[in-house]
Every structure is written in structure tokens, then in C-alpha cells.
Amino acid sequence: MTKLQPFIAFEKVQKIYGEGAGRVKALAGVDLAIERGEFLAIMGPSGSGKSTAMNILGCLDKPTAGRYLFGGADVTALSRDQRALLRRNFLGFVFQGYNLLARTTAVENIELPLVYRGTPRHERHERAIEALRLVGLEGREHHTPAQLSGGQQQRVAIARAIVTDPLVLLADEPTGNLDTARSHEIMELLTRLNDERGLTIIMVTHEPDMAAFAHRTIRFLDGHIESEHRREAA
Question: According to the lineage, what is the superkingdom (predicted)?
Fold first, then answer.
């Protein structure tokens, strides 16, 4: 029987920066398989390789050696423009710092990825309103970031990331700027999006209690995957 190809895979992925004495091997031949609909947490100390792995997964960087496969396609073989198209059409991003436009309303912030796609105004407004509803912010359409709490701003950022219906959400320390209660609210929202919409989520975090929401946690150390832990089914 032919083994099914994982949705996302690293095959002996290496990433080397610099030359000579300044040469750094950020990733040292990493193998990784991520299934569609999985919620994966990535942990590790500073300089372990987790951010480099995330940048490659997000098509923001490419390996020095090895292959990165996405839906069976070899991303490593794509041009810069082709990687940008993959990023725009299939990936959503959430960051620790929200990255919202300060003088722009919540709904306008959420519409931005659709503006870049050339989506008609009426359609993108409807989709942005629906994304706001999905993250529990009905009635906040016309609030600017300054009028929203940190947790609400991160909800707007998540709505912006999912408004294009991506296959994968890449979340980089999504609770890093939030208190414990707001952090748990954001993690519960991500869990719901994963459960109800089948959204594949890959999250970098340094907080074990946030990683505990994921199906599986991998820990990087010195450019390798040091350990892997799978959450027991409830």
C-alpha cells in the first residue's frame, strides 16, 4: 500500500547563514511531517532554529538544502514570485505585536488581504464582517486599534489572517503580549477555528501552558528537533 504524503513536510531541511568563521547552521537536516487539520506547537530556546523553521514554512525564506513540500508541491523549487503567490493564497499569519494599522478601523484592517487580491469592495466588506463575527467581535467594526484591548486587537489580527480562507495559519507567539486570561481566550479561539473549520495551525510559543492547547508539541534545540510530545485525547 502506498503511504499517503503528509500535508506539509520537511525532508532533511538545512538552513545555513553566513560563511567561514561566521557560518551558522540554523537548521541541521530537519525532518518534519504535519498533517492537514493538525494544531502544532513549536518550542525551543532562542537560537534553536524554531523561528528559521517558521520562516521557511511561511515561504519567507527557503532552505539551503533539503526539501519543503506543501500539499505535495516542492516549495523549494518555486521562484520568489511563486512562493509569494502560495503565501498569499494559502497561508495566514498572526504575530505577537498584532501589526494592525493604527488609524484604520477593525473592518478595514481585516479587508486588507482582500484588497491586495483585488476582491470587489462589497464582497470584501461582507467577508470582513463575517470574520469579525467568527472571532467574537460583532459591533466593533468601526473601532480603531486604540479603542480595543490587546486581546481584542489580537482577535482582529486573527480575523484578518482567516478572511482569505487560508489552509494554514502560522501564529508567532500569538499570546506573547497578553495576560493569562486573554491568552487563554485567544488559545480557545484558535482551538475552535482548528476544530470547526479544520484550519491547520502552526504556532511558535515559549509558554508550555499555551503549547498544551496543541495536538502536538515539538521542541527545537541547536537546529534539530530534540523532542516531540503528543497530547493525549480527552
Answer: Bacteria
